[in-house]
Write a structure and sequence with these properties.
alpha+beta, Alpha-Beta Plaits, 2 domains, five-stranded antiparallel sheet, 6 helices, disordered C terminus
Length: 188
Amino acid sequence: MGGSGGGAFVRSWLPVLRLRRRYIAFEVFSEKDVSKSDLLAAIRSAEITLYGDIGSSMNLLRLIYFDGSFGLLRCALTRIDESRAALATIYSINRTRVAIRVLGVSGTIKAATEKYIPELPLRRAENVERKIELEQLSGWIVRINGWEVDLTPDDQEITKRSDTQFLGLTSFDLYGGMYNADDASDGI
């Protein structure tokens, strides 16, 4: 059955002709909530600033998923390093300080979400919030990452000088787990 009519199915893109893509899983740390549209605008702006219109058009970036904390970005296979560099240059979104950490790169959405984006709500800031009451410091823990703790102090004078909302501490600062050579605790 040759010809253009009939029930013959013709694939328009053979597998070797398809664009190969990768999915970058990332985490956003910010002082305030960041919307998906603001994040996408910041990513596009960073990419255009770094690589110009032609360079950024070859990457075909697309923000697949963003929940306010974790996200998934699609890019071209040959442009992974450029995409990671664009994410690394973003330090502010709508005058809110942010830091973007790449968690990993995968070939499929399923693998990227299973490996790098946690399902447990324990890692999200609003569920980790706990009140800390110490002699010299009190406030709410908003993020825990290994030994690092971000705390919003009740006394806002502490953070006014640093132009930030959070106070970065370690668990040793909170619990006095480390001792100097003179046996004095470094904890608060």
